[in-house]
Amino acid sequence: MKIGIIIPTLNEELNIVELIKKIDKNLSKKYDYNIAIIDDSIDDKITTKIDLYKSRIKYIHRGKKMGRGSAILIGMRHFLDSNFSDLIIEMDADLSHDPDELNEKIILFKENNYDLLIASRYLKDSKIINWSWQRKILSFLSNKLAKIFLKIPVSDYTNGFRIYSNRATKHITTNCGKIGDGFIILSEILMELYYNNFKLGEHKTIFRNRVRGKSNVNIKLIISSFLGLLKLINIKISKY
Fold first, then answer.
1. How far is 201 from 114, CA to CA, in rounded Å?
2. What is the pTM (predicted TM-score) of this model?
3. CA–CA gap between residue 84 and residue 80 (Å, rounded)
4. What is the DSSP string of 47-115?
């Protein structure tokens, strides 16, 4: 089985090597995997740090902040074009998503024939570690708001630790990316897959706030995500 892992990055040179090492430790003996790093950093410092793993990495340097959404779509199209897409995994670069959870989630994904498996921060046995109360409230409220209006039976609309099937990936690259280029694509993908009868699932996770580097979440991104949600609500009303 060929597994493609997409990692969107912006100034993550302090974390990327540790993340890649942990992914390799967990997957290299069991699966054929490759990584697509979509880097929006101004410079390409990451390239000097990932040289040891270059045979498994496709590095795409965009050189300016263009958004998580478009980065994920670029990574998906890369793996589809290279026929390396039995499963597609999406992860953050800041180590908030634990690579030690990968094997368990891949097995669960295959056993249940999911098209999308979300590592959900809001299941009973999940944990969020070292987030400020402001971030906790913002995340909780944004997920509640999305659930009220989009009515998709999952608890976490906005965590970017996910596994996609090949057929879901093909559907996403054809139909998503029309709302915005930031985090709103996570909710857009959910809506597109759920209302087109793809099989969705959730699994517990431990989400750890970054230790190194600075978060890219700012007021502009929050406003953009809110406006994107309004667009999704309008699409849901008119289409579904």
1. 7
2. 0.93
3. 6
4. HHHSGGGGGGEEEEE--S---HHHHHHHHHHHHHHTT--SEEEE--TTS-S-GGGHHHHHHHHHHHT-S
Q: In Å, how far are 8, 44, 81, 149 from 38, measured between CA atoms?
A: 5, 11, 16, 31
Backbone phi and psi for residue 152, each to the nearest 5 degrees, phi listed first: -100, 130
Q: Pick the closest to residue 188 from 217, 160, 216, 215 (CA basis).
A: 160
| Tens digit of each residue's pLDDT (9 = 90 or more) over 201-233 | 999 999 998 765 566 555 666 667 778 888 888
Distance CA 149, CA 146 (A): 5
Enter the tokens of residue 36: 């697509």
Within 10 A of 70 (CB to CB), how many other CB atoms are there?
18
State residue 147 phi and psi, 5-degree precision. Answer: -70, -40
198, 146 Cβ separation under 8 angstroms: no
Phi, psi of 158 (to 5 degrees): -125, 5
Residue-wise pLDDT tens digits, 9-61: 999 888 999 999 999 999 999 999 999 999 999 998 898 888 888 899 999 99
